[in-house]
Amino acid sequence: MTSSVAASLAAALIAAAGIAFVVAGPQRPTARTAAVIGPAAAEESGAPIYYQDPDGKPSYSLVPNKTPDGRDFRPVPAGADISFDDNQAETPPPATAAAGGSGERKIKYYRNPMGLPDTSLTPKKDSMGMDYIPVYEGDDSDDGSIKLSPGKIQRTGVKSERAAMRVVRTVVRAPGTIALDERRISVVAMRAESFILKVADVTTGSHVVKGQPLMEVYSPSVSSAAAEYLTTITSKTTSGDVQYGRGSRQRLMNLDVPDAAISAIEKSRTVPTSIGWTSPRDGIVLERNAIEGMRVEPGGVLFRIADHSIVWALIDIAERDLGMIAKGQPVTVKARSFPGREFTGKVEVIYPEINKETRTARVRIELQNPDLILLHDMYVDADIDTGSGEAVLTVPESAVMDAGARQAVFVDKGQGRLEPREVKLGHRGGGFVEVRQGLAEGEAVVVSANFLIDAESNLKAALKGFAEGAQQ
């Protein structure tokens, strides 16, 4: 390498690093000065072409100089080279464009000093007079990996972490509403034509218990069935045979006469004028249609009573999360009306349909409601723990380069060499992501500054493509 080429290369590298040039003069140079091209005789005589700080700092002088503590600057001969990877000057092994003597590295091509996608097979200068930078064989890998110097790794903050087996706990959060348990709703209706004589002091919203009187009803069909039953159980011929009274008693039960009323007939041995109707379960009166004096047709609903001690939470799960939901998974439900209060349950049913407007699927959770504070149609938020409890191969989420259709990571091969590798991902949770394909346990991946590395690899790929095109 000639003195002019070496000096030009040094000047180009210094300019790229942002170091100011200072013209030589009799005054003392500043701490950040650089060398200009020396005479051709400098190489022949072995004289230094500039002087550098003895500690390797980016401080240069055209003339002998001293540090603030009195030490001499180090002379740099014409054959020396400069590297700013570790902020110090280094003298690499001699390089040449020819594959001559042993120990010499061959120059593969020259690239633009400003990083532009422009290469050359021979030495040249750019429009600003800067020499193109040689790229040696071995520095440009053919396996798609890139190599960073220790200085660049330290400056960019590259960190690696090994892929390891972990339990991924993914929580799916979704909104929903409270609904009544369909199995805990009862309807009070007449099975024969009847007349309501009296209604108890029960209104919509009242809480009733099983057996509590609701109303008194007169029904010709019920009175006829009661008289038949009474005749059967009081007859001297059939009273001693239980089988004879079973049919007439069953008729009363078919008319939905309460057990308490049938027991009263058996005890009093008389046919009552009216029958007292009672609540079939504990719960809240959701509907009351009974009015004193009204005539009721068969099938007419007079009361609707629901048990609120156990309710359903109907949660709308986004279609993309449906694959992670399974029956039996634990769920924590929070009511917006009661901050800080939590209700626990499990996924009981996954409804086999998708809402075409919202693209959600409905999931049912059964919740205990002993305080009766969860009301019908109340808004709630659910956290569904979808973790399986089994350890899977994972990496930190920051290690994944997600391009939408493809995901990749940078595998740290050691000695500054990084290999981009496509991976197949699974569940996410707790800052980690499952890797189903592309990595092995124990392989180190880059977890920080990978976007800077990706930009570096794209630049090198472009330069390599231009170089291959120029050689053809």
Q: What this model shows, in words?
A:
The protein has 472 residues and is α+β, with helices and mostly antiparallel strands. 18% of the residues lie in helices and 36% in strands. It is built from 7 helices and 30 strands. It has helices at residues 3-16, 41-45, 150-156, 220-234, 242-254, 259-268, 450-471, and strands at 48-52, 60-61, 74-77, 95-96, 105-111, 119-120, 133-136, 146-147, 159-162, 164-167, 171-180, 185-189, 194-199, 207-208, 213-218, 275-278, 283-288, 295-296, 301-306, 310-318, 330-335, 342-355, 360-368, 379-385, 391-396, 401-402, 407-414, 417-429, 432-437, 444-448. Strands 8, 10, 25, 26, 27, 28 and 29 form a 7-stranded antiparallel sheet that branches. It has a 6-stranded antiparallel barrel with strand order 11-20-23-22-21-24. The longest helix is centred in the last third of the chain and has 22 residues, at 450-471. It is rod-shaped and about 140 Å long. The relative contact order is 0.13. Mean pLDDT is 78; it is low at 1-43 and 81-102.
